[in-house]
């Protein structure tokens, strides 16, 4: 099977490429000129230089491919201008859809997010029937929603078969977003819980996300659908933070503040980092506070039923692998320096 992966140098993308190679597939990766491609070169994959914002480069990359896995995205908050979220997550995804249709690709699997239904309110054991908000409060969620809609609509109306996968909080070896922020805050004695960390959350180990994506590519009778993928275990914010601290070797959070105060703090941090002379991304935001301070739990029953999904890595096993990976790269300090 010939497969193209966009965003292949990212967290999910790199792990997915490895899984594809292990399964004996031929992989091509769409990479930007500035991307760090050494890990991909070591895997022996074909590299195609381009950018999802450039339709012609995407079209050239997808030619001859059976499957396309679209992982490229701007993630996190405050790491790029607001317009960049829409240029990559929305318009870039539309370019991928158009290119796949034009090149006769059989199947497109797109990485979406549970945030497409995120409206800064609590959700308990939610599923894919949650409605999209009428108005979004952050560019990441809105731009990803626009991208997902383009994917699912194409899968319902045309010859291209499509599936959108919605992970929750993605974690595991190779994570350079969630783990470094937690470790950095802990080193400054600023890692705190919100409302004592009692809220329930859903997590998605990167291996489980890749497993669900690979299964989605195989179910040719399923198209135009979106699927939540989680570790399928109940866990609170406190439990997850403490397990991460144990695995990574940083201080467990000892402070707890009320949600309202944390949200106000996130607002101030966002405003500070929006100043023209501040060129570093914020380590805190209203979006991050809401994700960790509200009950946000999801179920993956639809993926179980229609894709045959079952988690391949438990949370406890995932923590063990995380600790082993950190030991291999020289500890959490090495990750913070990179």
Automatic annotation (TrEMBL):
Residues 4-255 form the 3-beta hydroxysteroid dehydrogenase/isomerase domain. It holds the Pfam family 3Beta_HSD. InterPro entries: 3Beta_OHSteriod_DH/Estase, NAD(P)-bd_dom_sf, NAD(P)-dependent_oxidoreduct. One of its GO terms (molecular function) is aldehyde dehydrogenase (NAD+) activity. GO terms for cellular component: cytoplasm. GO terms for biological process: steroid biosynthetic process. This is NAD-dependent epimerase/dehydratase family protein.
């Amino acid at each position: 099977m010939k497969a193209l992966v966009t965003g292949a140098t990212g967290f999910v993308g790199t792990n997915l490429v490895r899984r594809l190679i292990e399964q004996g597939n031929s992989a091509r990766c769409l990479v930007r000129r500035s991307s760090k491609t050494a890990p991909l070169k070591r895997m022996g994959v074909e590299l195609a230089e381009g950018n999802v914002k450039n339709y012609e480069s995407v079209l050239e990359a997808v030619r001859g491919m059976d499957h396309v896995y679209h992982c490229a995205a701007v993630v996190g908050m405050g790491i790029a201008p607001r317009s960049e979220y829409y240029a990559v997550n929305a318009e870039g995804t539309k370019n991928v859809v158009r290119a796949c249709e034009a090149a006769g690709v059989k199947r497109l699997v797109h990485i979406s997010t549970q945030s497409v239904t995120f409206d800064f309110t609590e959700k308990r054991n939610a599923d894919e029937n949650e409605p999209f908000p009428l108005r979004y409060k952050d560019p990441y969620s809105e731009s990803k929603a626009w991208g997902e809609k383009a994917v699912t609509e194409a899968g319902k109306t045309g010859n291209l078969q499509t599936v959108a996968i919605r992970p929750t909080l993605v974690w595991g070896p190779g994570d350079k977003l969630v783990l470094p922020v937690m470790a950095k805050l802990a080193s400054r004695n600023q890692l705190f819980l919100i409302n004592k960390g009692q809220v329930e959350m859903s997590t998605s180990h990167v291996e489980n996300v890749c497993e669900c994506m690979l299964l989605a590519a195989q179910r040719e009778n399923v198209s135009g659908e979106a699927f939540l993928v989680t570790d399928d275990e109940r866990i609170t914010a406190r439990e997850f933070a403490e397990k991460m601290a144990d695995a990574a070797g940083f201080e467990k959070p000892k402070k707890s503040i009320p949600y309202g105060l944390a949200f106000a703090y996130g607002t101030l941090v966002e405003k500070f980092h929006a100043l023209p002379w501040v060129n570093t991304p914020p380590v805190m935001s209203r979006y991050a506070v809401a994700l960790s301070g509200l009950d946000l739990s999801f179920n993956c029953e639809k993926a179980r039923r229609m894709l045959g999904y079952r988690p391949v890595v438990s949370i406890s096993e995932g923590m063990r692998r995380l600790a082993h990976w950190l030991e291999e790269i020289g500890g959490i300090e090495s990750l913070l320096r990179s």
